[in-house]
Write a structure and sequence with these properties.
alpha+beta; seven-stranded mixed sheet; 2 helices; 28% strand
Length: 178
């Protein structure tokens, strides 16, 4: 299975394109900056399947993948041929509120699946560009993906559907501001 995915996401020799990153939210942390974007998944820019490779929701940990059309993604991805994988990280089974976390992820997957299967509408998500993002320029922020993977934003086992700051002192670890 992995070989099929790798062959469909092979490296490309196309010139590097610089994308507009005015919509990128930068969270400055102690050791690194984290880059997040709000992105509308649509039937034109997302898919549940990569060729013959079916996509399933992993009931035991909540992981799933969505395949994004590279040409419609707002961040340059010169190493990707046509596809960027958007992955929902699995839930740590020893973490807090495991069932709740997996149920939330399943509900999001089902919303995306319904939108894609009907071919209409959109589902807005928040994407974490780290760790496979490189800052090319600082003065006029320019980013580029170094791999063909990005992730749904997650903190403490839960999908984070906003660009706000994550706070340790908040009861659920997430400050809900947009």
């Amino acid at each position: 299975m992995l070989i099929v995915a790798a062959s469909n996401i092979a490296c490309s020799a196309e010139p590097v394109l610089v994308a507009d990153v005015s919509s990128v939210n930068v969270s400055k942390e102690k050791y690194s900056d984290y880059y997040h974007i709000r992105y509308a998944l649509t039937p034109d820019n997302a898919s549940l399947n990569l060729g013959a490779r079916p996509n399933v929701f992993e009931n035991e940990n909540g992981q799933f993948d969505i395949y994004l059309n590279k040409s419609q993604f707002p961040i340059a991805a010169p190493m990707c041929e046509r596809t960027i994988i958007l992955r929902m990280p699995g839930t740590n089974p020893s973490g807090d509120q495991v069932k709740q976390s997996i149920n939330e992820k399943k509900a999001l997957f089902e919303r995306i699946q319904t939108m894609l299967n009907t071919g209409s509408g959109s589902v807005e998500v928040v994407i974490e560009l780290n760790p496979y993002v490189e800052k090319i320029r600082s003065n006029s922020l320019t980013l580029e993906l170094t791999q063909c993977n990005v992730f749904f934003r997650q903190a403490r086992n839960h999908y984070v559907d906003n660009l706000g700051e994550i706070k340790n002192n908040h009861p659920d670890g997430i400050k809900k501001n947009y």
